[in-house]
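Give me the fold.
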Amino acid sequence: RRALASSSFAAPTVGPLPSSVRSTSTSYAREMSTLCVLAAPSLLASKPLTDRLRAETPKEFDIVLGSEIEDFKDVIDGAKSRDEVSMLWWFAKKELVEGFMASASVGERVRWMHSGSAGVEHLLAVDAVKNHSAPLSNGKGAFSASLGEWGVFACMYFAKRVDVMRKAQSERRWIREHVGMIEGKRMCVVGYGDIGAHVASRAKAMGMHVDAVRRSPEKTSANDSSVERVVSFAEINDAVKDADYVVVALPATPETEKMINADVLRSMKPSSVLINVGRGSTVDEDALVDALRDKTIAGAALDVFAVEPLPSNHAFYGMENVLISFHCADLTADYHDLALDCFIENATNVVKGQPLTHVVDKALGY
């Protein structure tokens, strides 16, 4: 499987632990711990995935899977109501998370939470999760390779005028049209985390010049050869002005809400293209519709949206200069296996008393 970039975090002692595990607080699951898997019904119905989850999760975890609150009755007030609890969010509905965490009995016993996805805004929207002292890890890195490919593909889609070619093909017309190249073009990646870095490395390999905008430019490695310049969020307008392609790979946080606004779009070149592989909430979609209609920018490739599914009457559907990929850019055949890789890695770390990887800063939102 693909190697996952990791940031480590020593698993803390979270609240008063039982005496049996107090001396090894980073490895509480050495004693039996109940792992509650809050899952989407479709995943519960997938025998290969549930079999793998049971087979590869360390035996120190007693697994309880469910998609309804009734599935966790034993954990809340039954035979397992005294066990330490770990929670895996496996794409379950928000209401299940709220109901599960609302139990005082459960809340007091949760020692570790994990999100199957890299984005965690859905979990941090639940106060009982956001304010809980237990660490929350996520699937960071699991889907970065496919999103990195899609970011470069979107550049090529516009450069090679695929929409024009497909239209002529559907009309059975033979055409001869000039096409562009992405080699030598400039990309600006807004949000230079794991996904942004995967886009940048692939763009660099295709001969593009890459700049980046990130919250903390000082975190960029001196050995990072993918980017030529890295600046802070405060400098975003200047950073995008020379870019042929602006790739947004931001997480959904209060700070990034509509960061790509009318001012940023006006700072871009009329020939430039906006590409979003992060979260829909980071783009002011009304401003983007105006910019596309007014030819302030040339086009947009959008995988994510502020509201999903995108309403059928949304303007994006009817715009010829917009490519929509329906949040499918990372939906590879092994999507859920990649998510499990991250979880199993951390479950193993917990058992061995090793630091967790991909730990979320709940205050920052990623």
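The chain has 15 helices and 14 strands.
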